[in-house]
Design brief:
Helix content is about 20%, strand content about 25%. The chain has about 200 residues and is α+β, with helices and mostly antiparallel strands. The chain has a single domain, classed as Alpha-Beta Complex (Peptide Deformylase), CATH 3.90.45. It is globular and about 50 Å long. The protein binds nickel (II) ion. Nickel (II) ion (NI) binds next to α4.
Length: about 200
C-alpha cells in the first residue's frame, strides 16, 4: 500500500512517527500541485493534517500520543510531496485566528513591511533549537483552494502571516533556518518589526 493510501485510511491517526526530519530529501523538494477538483484522498489528507494539529494542541491527547504542539503542518513533512498545508492558530480559549487546509496555496501579494518573531521559529521536522531571526513579510494575501475545491483568497497578518509563510516554504523545499543569517543570527534590520 502506498504511503498516501495508508495515512488517509479512515482510522489512521497521524503521530510524530509520520513526520520526517530535517535531513530527509523530501523536505528539499519542490512539491507538486494537487489536482483540482480534489480527489477524495487529498481531502482526507488535509483532514488528517488538521486533526494532527488539533490533537497536538489538546494537552491530554498530545501527552497520550506524545505529540509536539504545532500550529502548522505541510504535506512534505509527512513525506508526501504535494502542495497542501494545514494551519491551526489559536487566539483564545476555544477560538482560532485561522483554521484552514490550503491546497496549492500561493502568496499573490505582500507588504513591504517585514517582521520576525522575537523568539525565532521552530518546526516539527527540526528536533533542535535553531536560534535566530527569520524575517518574513508582515502581511500576505494568499490564494488557494479549500477542501471543497473552491478558490479562496485570504489576507493574513501577524502570527498567521508568519505561519503561512513558514508552511508555504516547506512546499518549496525551504526550512526556516535557511532564512537565518549564518554570520549574525540576530541581525535584524532597523525597519523590521519584532513580534513578541
Ligand atoms: Ni516547519
Amino acid at each position: 500500500m502506498d504511503l498516501l493510501t495508508k495515512i488517509t485510511q479512515e482510522d489512521y491517526v497521524l503521530t510524530m512517527k509520520n513526520i520526517i526530519k530535517e535531513d530527509h530529501p523530501t523536505l528539499r523538494m519542490i512539491s507538486e500541485e494537487v489536482e483540482i477538483p480534489l480527489m477524495s484522498k487529498m481531502v482526507s489528507l488535509g483532514d488528517k493534517m488538521l486533526n494532527f494539529l488539533k490533537n497536538s494542541q489538546n494537552p491530554e491527547i498530545a501527552e497520550k500520543l506524545e505529540l509536539r504542539g504545532g500550529v502548522g503542518l505541510a504535506a512534505p513533512q509527512l513525506d508526501v510531496s504535494k502542495r497542501v498545508v494545514a494551519l491551526l492558530v489559536p487566539d483564545s480559549e476555544d477560538a482560532y485566528s485561522i483554521e484552514e487546509v490550503m491546497y496549492n496555496p500561493k502568496i499573490i501579494s505582500h507588504s513591504v513591511q517585514e517582521v520576525c518573531l522575537k523568539e525565532g521559529e521552530g518546526c516539527l521536522s527540526v528536533d533542535r533549537e535553531v536560534l535566530g531571526a527569520v524575517i518574513r513579510y508582515a502581511r500576505v494575501r494568499v490564494a488557494y483552494f479549500n477542501r471543497e475545491s473552491e478558490k479562496k483568497e485570504l489576507k493574513l497578518k501577524g502570527y498567521d502571516a508568519i505561519v503561512v509563510q513558514h508552511e508555504i516554504d516547506h512546499l518549496n523545499g525551504i526550512l526556516f533556518f535557511d532564512r537565518i543569517n549564518a554570520k549574525d543570527p540576530w541581525a535584524i534590520p532597523e525597519n523590521v518589526n519584532i513580534m513578541e
